[in-house]
Each structure stands twice: as structure tokens, then as C-alpha cells.
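Q: Could you write out the predicted structure for this multi-component system? I'm mainly interested in how the pieces pack against one another.
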Amino acid sequence: MKNINLNQIIQIALISVMSMMSLMGQDNTVIQNVVVRIPEVALLDLEGRSGTDIRFTGEGPREAGMAVDFSNQTNADLWINYSSITNKKTEPSRDITVQITSGKVPAGMVLEVTAGKDAGRGEGQVGVPTGTISLNQTAQSIISGVGSAYTGHGTTKGHQLSYRLALSNDKGSYGQLDLDQSNTVAIMYTLTDQ
Amino acid sequence: MRRTITVLSGLLLAGTTMLTAQDDHDDVHNLIIKIPEVALLDLESTGDKTINLGPEGPKEAGEALDFSNQTNSELWINYSSVIGSKSEPARDITVQITSGKLPTGILLRVKSAKDAGRVMAPWVHQTGRSNWMRQPSRSSVVSAPLTPVMEWRKDIN
């Protein structure tokens, strides 16, 4: 019994020493994987001080023989805000397109919109305006080259939109004016993949 | 149990509200275009709009009154018109005597010329030497001269 106890004590001691040696030989660095994931972002919003509806009413003449005056039919109340994170390989930049999704511009008239330069209230690769767009049912690029950027939220941030309703320069346009073609036009802006 | 349901319903409602308030990659706004109805007419002249017509008396006994120079072309009709293809597709311009009377045996005729063409929609249809002029079927701004002619009515002498 006494011998067995001694053997057991020796075994325990040996195991303890080996364990200690094993511990001393261990590496003191630990690898921890951290997954960094940047989300894809594509958000667009139209901002106006008091809603986003615009009203254009041609002014009727006061003197017989004078034309309807459309010269004051302009509006610059709306702003485009956007937030965008792009992928350099799969989606290097985006466009903002504009199109009429319901309603129609009355015959003899043109509805134009121009986007201003970004107001500089955000940062990143903001888009570049493409110039004046004559609106119709087809999507047209109004801002191009949007990369990873944000414009800031609200009016006076992002790109200001300037609308103009005018008589078409085409011959006979005035004769096409028809008060029954007064209507509401829905205009959609889309931050799209290039 | 009822409390749990209330709390869950509240959370669900809040979640739904947050979802609807979220922006996405596009946005739409309305633009309301209103074309005004226009129906204006005016008579224009370089001077007074009153016309004086009267036959010249004969200088020789036995001759008739001379109506040959009893014409006037000083007045112009101006008008501005915007029509509605459904509600009011075309307009006429009518003419009538509203006071006074033509002397017996006298005829007063007026003719409107073609539009002068200083306009954007010059298609005016006239009815010739009659008492009215048909207005174009589309919207227009027009000037047309008027030529009244005073004649002796041979049919009732």
C-alpha cells in the first residue's frame, strides 16, 4: 500500500512537470478573424421645403391678341439627396436617371429639368450633372459618375433641380395648346447601376 | 398575456412605420401643369373706332347718290384663344348690329381678311363676304382686318 502510494505520487509529479513544460512551450499569439463588411448603399431622396409637388400655370393674356405667357414657369425648389457605396470591380459608378412615369407633357410644350452641381455639404465621389434634360417617358441620365459618396440630407444639400415649362420651338406649337391637356405629371429619379 | 400581445403589437407597428419611412434607390414627385382657358377679342384701329360712311350727293340733276367710295378698312380684329379639344374644340367670331338700324334700302356688308400672319397659329377660315368668320379649330393669337362696305340695295328699290 505504501509502495503504491509512492508510485502514484511519482506519476502525479511527472505529469505535473510535463504539463508545465508543455505550457512553457506554447505560442503566446492568438489569431482572431475580424470580418470587415462594407454594405452596398444606394439611397435617393427628393427634398423640398414644403412637399415635393410643383405647380405650373401659364398666365393668360390680358389683351386680346397677346399670347399665353410661359416665361415665368420655372421652379428650383427641389433637391436630390443621395447616399451611395459602390464596388470598384462590379459597380464602379452609378447614374441618376429621370423619367416621366405617369401623365404627359401637353402637346406644343416642353418640360425641362437641369441638375445643379453638388452643393458640397457631404463628401466622396459625387456625381456630375449631364446638362438640361427634356423630359419624356424614357429614362435619361441627369447625373453621372456617382461613386461612394453622400450629399447630406435636406434642401440646400445635394443637387438642386431647376424645372422650366415652355412653349416648344417647333412650328405650330401654339396651335396645339389644349386646356384639356392640363394634367399631373409624375417624375421619377432613380440611382441606378451603370 | 394581454399585456404581452399589446407590447408585441406595438413593436410590430413601430417596425412597420420604420420600414415605410425608409428611403430606397428612387423617388417620385408630382408636377401639375395647367393651361389656362383664353377667349379674348378686341377691335383695334390707329384712330377712332367709329366709322363714317355716307354716299356722296350728285352734282348734276338726274344722277344718283354715289355709293362707290363707301368703304373702310381701318379696323382690325385681334383675338387670343386657347381651346379645349374635348370641352370646347372650336370657336366662332360672330358679328351683329346691337343698336341702331340700317336705313331702308341700304345694305352694310363686312368682310374679314385672312389673318395677318404675325401669329403662331395662322390658320383662320373665313366665310367670305358674310357676317361671320370661323375661328381656327386650335389655339391661336390672330389679327384680321375688317372691311365694311356700304351699298345700295338694288333688290328693294
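A: Regarding packing and overall arrangement: Residues 10-19, 120-138 of chain B have pLDDT under 50 and may be disordered.
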